[in-house]
Amino acid sequence: MKVLYITQGFPANSMVGGQISSYYRIVQLVRAGHDVTALCLVPKGNALTNSLELEELCRVVPVRDVPRTTALRLALGLFDRLPWPIRRYSSRAAARTAAELAGSFSPDLVVFNSLHSAPLLPAVRAASRAPCLLFSPNVQSTIMRLFAAHQSGPLARLYAWDQAQKTREYESAHAGRFDAVCVYSRTDADGLSELAPDAAIEIVPMALDIDAMGKPAAPDFDLLLTGSFEWRPNVDSLTWFIREIHPRILERRPGTTVRVVGPGSDKLRDQLASPGVMFEGRVDDIAPYFRSTRLLLVPLRIGSGIRVKIVQAFGARVPVVSTAKGCEGLEVDTGKHLMVADEPTEFAAMVAELLDDTDMRNRLAREGRALAERMHDALATDRPFVRVCEKLGGSPD
To answer: For the whole model, what pTM was predicted?
Structure first.
């Protein structure tokens, strides 16, 4: 089966959650024997990832004209019918390249990796009769709505609500135009069904290389927070942790050490400086940090879909403390696979207790690993995402 895979940036097994999960969708297709061409919509200037790893898997066709987000472009978004995150990826060059690829090598299936690439659907439809699948790793309008609810300033809140409403309208109007839509969880399936009742929705679990982080080493710091801190929900998460949770941890357990790792985190160093917290910024390899921490923290308040970092931690046998929103969509039991707390005092108390309880950490690590092996292994024989693609693309079983 020939697959045209349209995505944002260069999928890679690095440290940006969306790029990692996208990379392993392509890995699954290639390991199943399918021929993949990746059309990558890449921001101008330096991208978060490069194409080298992806080129080892498949043909890569970049379109390097995605504009950077600026204050002016955000302001002009008030007068645009499309929300800015969608408008960024709707260039004529991208549509033209998508149409050329769809028409030239006659794919059996076209995969659109998230709602952001949906503006290219008309161009693909005009050039090819191939079925089109939307992978929706989250309900985008849910993220925008939660982001708006957490804005403190009136102007920021007004702008965020405007973008949230436009995103909701766009998602509602376009999700049903695809031949199928894949989501990670029942929560997202229900949310998307409410927006687009005609959408043909399939639930497939997130799949990664669960051994990619390696085996735990002797811990040399206590707490890890990771992700792309150029994504606003992660900035909110980190800010909330530093200002509300971290001081309560230090009250209970002075000297607790924290590493904040990911693109953009170094830019927040001065703003969020706190005792025992090191802001590492972007690193070439996140695996050593997973191997060397006692706990992964996911104090997320804004989001949808599933957190790649939690599945990575399960694979790496690292215990997790998360908010309910942070672990939403995962089939986990609180107290068995991870610990959940939503209030700063409760979250801090849970972290302090786990840091002092090796037996509890070990038990969580074992159960998290077992869950990852059962449900989230991209290299396993059973690949639900591939099954959906093959059914849609007409590939024989």
So the answer is: 0.86
